[in-house]
Amino acid sequence: MTASVQARPRARRTLRPRFAPYLFSAPAVVLYVAFMLVPVGYAIWLSLRAYRLVGGGILGTRQDVFVGLENYVSVLTDPELLASLGRLAVYGLIAVPLTLGLALLFALMLDVPAVRAKRFARTAIFVPYAVPGVVAALLWGFMYLPSTSPFSYLTEAAGWGTIPFLENPTLFGSLANIAIWGGVGFNMIIIYTSLRGIPTELYESARLDGASEVQIALRVKVPLVMPAVVLTLVFSLIGTLQVYGEPATLQPMTRDISQTWAPLMTIYRDAFVTDDLPAAAASSTVLALGTVLISVLVLAIANRRRMEDAK
Amino acid sequence: MRSRSTAVVGLVSLTALLLSGCSSTGSGDGGPVTLEFWSWAPNTQELVDIWNEENPDIQVEYTDAGGGDDSAAKLLTANRAGNAPDLAAVEYTTLPSLIVSDVPLDITEYVEDVQDAYTEGTWAQTTFDGAVFGLPQDVGPMAMVYRSDRFEELGVEVPTTWEEFREAAAAVRAADPNTYIASLPPGELGFFAGVAAQAGSEWWAIEDGTWSVGIDDDESLEVADFFQSLADDDLISTEPLLTPEYNKKLNEGTILSWPSALWAPGVIESVAPETAGGWSMAPLPQWNEGDPAVAYQGGSAVIVTKASEHPEEAAEFAKWLNASDEGSELVLTKQNAYPAAIAGQELAAESDPPTLMPQQTDFYEIAADIASQTKPVIWGPNVNVAKSTFEDQLNKAVESGTPWRDAFTATADAVRDDMRETGYEVAGD
Predict the structure, then answer these.
(1) This prediction's pTM
(2) Considering only residues 169 to 188 of chain A, which have any Cβ-Cβ distance to chain B shorter than 8 Å?
């Protein structure tokens, strides 16, 4: 009787540690391998190949052959890559600081105790994020095109002519505006959630020390939500490097957005317009590596500053 | 509704694919065969329904796979994944690149018997080195569609030569400063290729296995100079076509013509239906007075894919759809396209004009005249590269004020480089 009672837990103890962790992590691992590592591996394999002419006939047929790093050489020596990164830099310099600045500002304002209609305001700011990117781009596209734009209608009525929203250099602001409009709400929620996690005692003691709401916001809240801001910064930078939907949707409406305006647009063109999947795979690999590099860099800088602050 | 049924078809075919691991679902010998068919022409489902009614043994499942470019991209991807449809509509411009990617089947043995249904020039659009890779469905002989009411109002003559087109463009600008005779934007490779061919240029040609590329030959560069001078003098617009902006101008009557092809009335009607009755069609302006030959812009053929397990049945359907009297009549009346088959074109001559120009009773007479004087055009295996480069380069030229001919030269270079890289013999090496 006692022996069997003791035996059961012992059996459990020996079985569990050995298999249970694998069993529990298996679904995640399988999904990760199947939908992350395998596709990445396939893309890299693809990037080492190219479609080349084989056989006769008037046209011949293209078959894929191994070409080593040829695709990488042509991707990295393509002046359009640097040019498109340059365009993204201009776009990012407008979009990222404004998105984060506005998100932080709105979050702080919503966190002020005296503010009314908080829930409504929060939802109102968040709603654009729920609008699909393509829909948002089309919507703004209509508002940018001279003969359908309400803004240009007003300026024209005032005798100043139409606003060239879709022409350089205004174009950068117009594109950034769509991203800001859609992105502020999401980033605000992240920062706001982090704000709600700050213990209220801190505010109380600040108030006892005679700090105003503005001082509390700048001296207490902002430093404490910095990790959340850094997180949203990384998201925004990655989002900038991966910008595609807005320029691609507006592309047919303007001369100033080429098919290689952003790196992802070049990748799409290679993959689906000019049927050069290997080149697209090579550009994708380069872009992914660049994105990882930038993310790591930003996080490292942020961490070092936090360590210094802690000292 | 349409998108839902497309989604359902997609889901069904996906399920079928997962179950069987191939695209054609059929029950082996003797039983009815099911074929998958991709197209984008309007009302194709109705045509397919008629066929299915009459042919219980060969059932066709239709999917709208998106317009010409999208459809070609999907076709390539599906082909590589091993689940291409049995049949697909493709544009003449993309057919060579699909042949090179091993998508269409050589269907010469199945379709030889209907060669007489087409004129020689039309048949040549899908024949390469004696092998037939598709059956022509509709053709787009180039023509000019214009606002006859506004031309009259502004006192502008209908141009018959490109020189007159310039004068008419200037007259339009003078009579109404808000109005342009037309917009001819860089995205329209098909237009520029067409008018270059009209001028005598061959953008692609092959002789003894060696390709030559003529996108930067003298004729083409002169075409570039001509249209640049129109744009420089602010006589034409270069804004993109069929954007909300452009459509609004069509409706307002501040864009007065669209030099394109015989399919244009249907397109204009879909974006500016209220302007019906104000339009007419005229032959495309000529480069040399008295030389009525024009090229094609657009048009499509139906291919049978190599992936098809029932090529004979698939070719049977393609022949009915495109080469038979019944099929080409439906292409004309249901799809509102100008049929490639002679029977369909003859039938068109007796039909009412398109709804965009009900008053122009001689529409199809003029159309038949134009169609009888077309020049066959050879498209190369990388029209996609040309199109993409041309659009970006010409946009850049228009934007920065550099010569348009540089964009033509850059396109020619890119096309040659791409062909060399792929492994073709290119003249000039």
Answers:
(1) 0.86
(2) none
